[in-house]
From TrEMBL:
Homology family: Belongs to the ATP-dependent AMP-binding enzyme family.
Entries under InterPro entries matching the protein: AMP-binding_CS, AMP-dep_synth/lig_dom, ANL_N_sf
Keyword Methyltransferase: no
Keywords recorded for this protein, A-Z: Fatty acid metabolism, Ligase, Lipid metabolism
UniProt protein name: Acyl-CoA synthetase
Native source species: Pseudonocardia yunnanensis
Signal peptide stretch: none
PROSITE patterns with a match to the protein in the record: AMP_BINDING
Pfam families: AMP-binding, AMP-binding_C_3
Length: 601
């Protein structure tokens, strides 16, 4: 008799869903405007076919499979197939620079690399580690005949290989809770990115805890649209799907999200703040359209009522019964039609995570009857560690720990987390593992916070200088700054972009070097305050920034900058005695400069 998958693995969840709901929808794609759906039975069979193919290619337990592809069914299948082999998946951000791709490849050491098409194949084929070690390259899409020795996914996975059944079952039966299921590479404060080790036990607990908290305790329908290299996307597209037996629609590009919302009408929708900001613009256009302009009075009354009711709850104030009833009625009228036009009328849980979201965005959606809850966590905590519960959002708070998780505040104010979702550490980085944990298994988050009288967590600062953009991308500013500082006449650099849509920078100029450049370009004048605005000077600074950007991923690249004539010093307060940037001081003193960089067309 063949062995069954270990109940400690995510493989057992897939087998369970395929047995309990074989004909229910599992994953879908939109092709030519039509929904193409794979049932749970078919989904599992595709995973088994791919896993059998991976075994034929020699994949061993605990080896790595890297995936460089968009949000598509084959990506999910390849990921789960890797787990079924007892191996470990790592998804690569498509925005990584060549240098960053090379680092992750050499650190993860994949035996197999799955890419989406010719462009990705060409990028991967040039990585020095790949050239030297020759992993198997598998292309999901090919143009004509393979030209670089790669295998074609459809040919590789066609048909079930019965001879691999026993090996597959044996691999799955051997999986334990503390075996790694994926590596998620995340930026640190300095240096190259680190691969966070997440185990089968981490992800099974995390998915179960989210359901127990009531965040996905429903008929689960979600859209997969953020990069699967992001822990939040992995959680709701892979692991929550397995936990709930729900239905996920793969969206190939985030800029098509609005279309996919209207087609699929999810029950569960999580977005990073930047996505909510874009959806707000779409909603404002919708409200101004002829469809709803004739109902303006009704919409205004309803929105005012909902905004008032939400604001009182958000400030922990009592809500009169009359206002509660008015708000309930307001949700049923024209505002329901607005939510339907957005594709969110069936959403039972809408959330924001990965970065702080502005109160005005929360208030706007609350006025439409869409209450956005917030959560907090790190890749190292397996994703969510703390979150609001439905109807409990409060100003400045990110909620309560998930069931089974604990939080506390260290003596220096740092937030500590202890839970079954905590990663055991980093791949190949025992030095970083030691820094990650405090005594007693408490994970150091690097964030500063407090716990209020209701037990809710409030994040007040960051212990480390990580930028989290509005899109939820973690960015180490020093990794950007060192590539610009000291080039040409540029002296110091401060990268900025926390909770903003993109990164900008302040550059200071060394006066002597600036004057030398001006003379070489036959620019008259010797006043640095005038020279920093000269077109030739700005063009040279732009060249320095462009060179730095060529080594950075798209989210890290500096989109705009301001060149300053005055350098920062210890005496003037912008530098510490050890010449480190006092970021908060610079942010305050140059608030207008930074604001102007986001106001440019």
């Amino acid at each position: 008799m063949l062995q069954t998958p270990s109940t400690q693995s995510i493989c057992a969840l897939l087998e369970q869903q395929a047995r309990l709901r074989p004909q229910a929808p599992a994953v879908s794609e939109l092709r030519d405007g039509e929904l193409h759906t794979m049932t749970w039975a078919n989904y599992r069979q595709c995973v088994i076919d791919a896993a059998s193919a991976f075994l034929d290619l020699g994949l061993q337990a605990r080896e790595t499979v890297a995936i460089l592809a968009g949000n598509r069914v084959e990506h999910l299948v390849a990921d789960l197939a890797t787990a079924h082999c007892g191996a470990v998946s790592v998804t690569l951000y498509p925005t990584l620079s060549a240098e960053q791709l090379a680092h992750v490849a050499s650190d993860a050491e994949p035996r197999i690399i799955v890419v989406d098409g010719p462009a990705s194949l060409a990028r991967v084929a040039e990585i020095p580690w790949v050239v030297q070690n020759r992993p198997v390259l598998v292309a999901l899409d090919v143009d004509g005949e393979p030209t670089q020795g790669e295998l074609h996914w459809q040919e590789l996975t066609a048909g079930h290989r019965a001879q691999q059944d026993a090996t597959l079952r044996s691999r799955q039966a051997a999986i334990r809770a503390d075996d790694p299921v994926t590596y998620v590479y995340t930026s640190g404060t300095t240096g190259p990115s680190k691969g966070v080790v997440l185990t089968h036990g981490n992800m099974r607990w995390m998915a179960g805890a989210v359901v127990r908290a009531g965040l996905a305790d429903c008929e689960y329908r979600a859209i997969s649209y953020l990069p699967l290299a992001h822990i939040a996307e992995r959680l709701w597209s892979v692991y929550l799907l397995l936990q709930t037996g729900g239905h996920v629609l793969c969206c190939p590009a985030p800029d098509r999200l609005a279309e996919y919302l209207r087609v699929f009408r999810p029950s569960f929708f999580m977005a990073v703040p930047r996505v909510w900001e874009k959806l707000r613009l779409g909603a404002e256009r919708l409200l101004a359209s002829p469809t709803f302009s004739s109902r303006e009075d009704e919409l205004t009354r309803g929105r005012d009522t909902l905004r008032c009711e939400w604001a009182q709850r958000y400030d922990d104030a009592p809500v009169p019964a009359a206002l509660r009833m008015q708000a309930a009625l307001a949700r049923e009228g024209a505002l329901r039609d607005v939510r339907a036009a957005l594709g969110l009328e069936r959403a039972l849980m809408t959330a924001s995570a990965a970065a702080p979201i502005a109160d005005d965005v929360l208030s706007f959606f609350a006025s439409l009857g869409i209450e956005i809850i917030q959560g907090y966590g790190l890749t190292e905590t397996g994703g969510v560690a703390v979150c609001d519960r439905l109807g409990t959002a409060s100003r400045g708070s990110v909620g309560l720990p998930l069931p089974g998780a604990e939080i506390r505040i260290a003596g220096d104010g740092e937030i500590l987390v202890r839970s079954p979702g905590n990663a055991p550490g980093y791949r190949n980085r025992p030095d970083a593992d030691a820094e990650l944990f405090a005594t007693g298994g408490w994970l150091r988050t690097g964030d500063i916070g407090r716990i209020d009288e209701a037990g809710r967590l409030h994040i007040t600062d960051r212990k480390k200088d990580i930028i989290i953009t509005a899109a939820g991308k973690n960015i180490a500013p020093t990794a950007i700054e060192f590539r610009v500082a000291g080039r040409s006449f540029v002296d110091q650099v401060l990268a900025f972009g926390d909770a903003r849509p993109y990164v900008v920078a302040l550059l200071t100029a060394t006066p002597e070097n600036l004057l030398e450049f001006a003379r070489s370009q036959h620019i008259s004048g010797a006043d640095p305050h005038e020279l920093v605005h000269h077109p030739a000077v700005l063009a040279r600074a732009q060249c320095v920034v462009d060179e730095a950007n060529s080594h950075l991923s798209r989210p890290e690249q500096i989109k705009r900058f301001r060149l300053l004539a005055t350098t920062w010093t210890v005496e003037s307060g912008e530098l510490t005695p050890t010449f480190k940037l006092r970021r908060s001081v610079i942010h305050h003193r140059h608030a207008d400069d930074l604001a102007a960089l986001y106001q440019q067309p």
